[in-house]
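Pair request: fold both.
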Amino acid sequence: MAQLAMLLSRAQNGLTADLVTVEVHLAPGLPGLNIVGLPEAAVREAKDRVKAAITTCGYRFPVQRITCNLAPADLPKEGSRFDLAIALGILVASEQVPAAPLQAVEVLGELSLSGELRPVPGVLPAALKATQAGRALLVPAACADEAALAPQARVLPAQTLAALCAALHEGGPAAIAASAPKAPAVDEPDLADVRGQPQARRALEIAAAGEHSLLLVGSPGAGKSMLARRLPGILPPLTAEESLEVAAVASIAHGGFDAADWGRRPFRAPHHTASGVALVGGGGQPRPGEITLAHRGVLFLDELPEYERRSLEVLREPLESGRITVSRAARQAEFPARFQLVAAMNPCPCGWLGDPSGKCRCTPDQVQRYRGRISGPLLDRIDLQLFVPRVDAAQLADRTATAESSTTVRERVIAARSRQLDRQGVPNAQLHGKALERHAAPDDTAAALLQTALARHLLTARSYHRCLRVARTLADLDNSERTGAQHAAEALRYREMDRTPV
């Protein structure tokens, strides 16, 4: 007599987790296990892991024709995340474990040949979806802390298949409560380590306060990388919702999320040989790229002109929208990409243009070709562009000089960001359309100054709006209700890429 069991699981699809029904059917016929429902290689190999795990744990593998269907059939299934659901389906269908404790439960987990449960990637997105559906999530014990980050989640951890089956005979494993860990103390590099560079420090503070992108242009050793790596330390703390987004990205990209990193903003610094796919993501089964791994954090591109131009152009859309859609022949996935871009470059091929040492021997034509590696439309999307001079020897040698710490600057940044969120609900860098006109409207003098720059072709329409956003951030740092002429003038000074020394 044919026997049937049905369990629920989740497939990974970008940052979401689609519901999969695991149907196991036992029938007379030639013994074997056949998995259908668009499985890829790792899923098809589950039959060998499942058979070994069941027999190793002391249970009987049915000598019947076993068909396992992963529905819906048109959704690609990948990875080893369905091992545990398939094994439990076989044991339930063969009446070796009760089905009742598995009602309203979703199952994820990889099986070893000994029956041990191994962790799988993408547990947090699955836990969020299971909680929304009002179901508990059964996972390997190694994934329990990650799954428990989902608010109000009911997580059922298990160490081995044998222990899990024993618990099912007694009503099921005990649930652990969902609990988001506390945010870690800020231990980023301190801004107080930076000597001199008052204008660059000011630009870094503005970028942090308004979530603006930043380009630092300067000679080797000017401190561009040092400044960029101190931006995360002055950014406002992540909200609980933002922390969940960052953790969900790490869960699918790194095979799991370490709860010790909860609330920490990511900092990504890919090498300049990175391809466009490495930056935006891709693959036959779409995976997140560097811009998604930097979501809610900082993407630092050092030696910007050394990147392939085609690789840099893929940043244009995410800088505007905060999302990226990766389309392939069989799959399409959308990933978040709300990152802060910080880029650094030399002013010329040798790097010494404009330096007091006079080392530069680059011709104007060589300088223009070097800068031409970065397209105008991409430069237009960078809010703050600043020339960073080298610090002189006297400043480096002065051990008595003190500078503001990251903690002090961060307090001002948090206050300015709070004003923005109270006023308009988003940082100034995300203001668009009528919201920009309503919340960042300059006074008459500031408006006249910006209009003059626009009329003289010093600004495009896009860079005009970006200057408005930067000026509004400067006003927020000054706790000013209106954007004044001094704010507009300072914002215009940060459009200096075309006016660096040639």
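--- second member of the pair ---
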Amino acid sequence: MGEFELISRYFANCGAKRSDAALGVGDDGAVLQVRDGYDLVVTTDTMVVGTHFFPDDEPRALGHKLVAVNVSDLAAMGAEPAWLSLALTLPAVDEVWLSAFAAGLSETADYYQCQLVGGDTTRGPMSLTMVAKGTVPRGKALTRSGAKVGDYIYVTGTLGDAALGLKLCQGLHEVSKKHQSHILQRFHYPSARVALGQALRNLASSAMDLSDGLYSDIQHILKRSNVGASIDVSRLPLSQALKDSCDTGTALQLALSGGEDYELLFTVPEARRGSLDVLLSPYGIPVTCIGRITGVAGKLELKQGDQAFDYQHQGFVHFS
């Protein structure tokens, strides 16, 4: 099977059919229509075999995850997902693998109302790259640079489950049958908090998604906003599955540095805090306050209740 037959068979009609994609797969480029009064948000993520996934991972899960991790970046900026481009590098054409991968990609893109509008295919070591594009009302994009001293720090959902899922797949940690399904679902099939991200446009002072672990990721907000932070690790939201599967120290390490949670980390000024529960309650996603922004630029203080919490681990860092 040649490159263009592969594209036509598996990716020509992938995801939702959008009226604002005037021209999609099949030409040298896509033609997209951005509404008046909106800004375009663009993000790119790459998943490489051996680094981000195992060679024998279920291809349907890879298709899902590739879309979800990109859409999660759009969610963190308060954007509405719209268009996707895929750069697919494969060592050979495996039609069974491609069919399952394309199915996972298409059903997840459809769920988030995205259309695949272009990309590239080539031969080589397996690598999956996606460019996701979305729109946000002009001037309303959430960034990492708006946090102010006194702001409250929040996270959505629970932390550490995906990292435990990775350890389970690696054979490094045991999980009871009661919790295996939940833990593996969180690792292989993450969810992007799109609707909640859009709801935060007029509430949050800064935001980002959690991909490399809370301990590492919050440093980006501290650097871009020129502030510090104090986090109480006893407030970190941990699932019952994680608490039942690990001792407290391991659970906190996974929550702080495990990565691949794809939850939202955001800050809210005190004046807007009263509106938070009311505006976010319809989304059914738990939101937890874990600390506050402080004035010492770049300083991250961890505590456990009233005591200092000594912590040396770091989240995932490429080229470290």
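Observation on the second member. The chain has two domains: 3-137, 152-308.
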